Amino acid sequence: MPEKATERRAKAALRNGKKPTTAAGEFVREEIEHVRRGKHGARSTKQAIAIGLSKARRAGIPLKPPKQGQASRRTRRSAEAAYEVGQRKRKPRAPSRRRSAASERALKREGKAAASRRALSSQARRAAARRRSRR
Length: 135
Known about the structure:
This is Transcription elongation factor. This protein has one domain. Helix content is about 65%, strand content about 0%. The chain is built from six helices and no strands. The relative contact order is 0.14.
C-alpha cells in the first residue's frame, strides 16, 4: 500500500497540470526510500522503479501501459491490469496471502544496492542514452 502522503502529492501534481509520469515519480521515490530504509530490497534499480510505477497505476494515476514491443508481454499485461484497476475498469482482486508472503520474503532477501545514488545515476544515464538513440 502506498503511503497517503505519496498519493496526496501525486494527485496534487496532476491537479497542477503535471504529466502522469511526473505524478508517478512520487511512487517511485517512495519505493526507492523503502529499499534504502530496509523495508525490503530490490534485485535492480529497474525492479524498484517498476514496483513504484505499478503502485502508481493501481492508485489511479493515468499512466498508460507500455506499447507493444516496448516491454515484454508479461510486463505489458501486468501494467494493463494495474492501469485498469486504477481507472476502475476492473475490480481489484483480493491478493493471495500465500503469493503476497512469498513475494515479500523474496524482496526481503534482496540487497539495498539497487537504491544507491550510483545505481540510480547509472540507470538514469542508460535510460537517457536509450532515449537519445531512438530519435
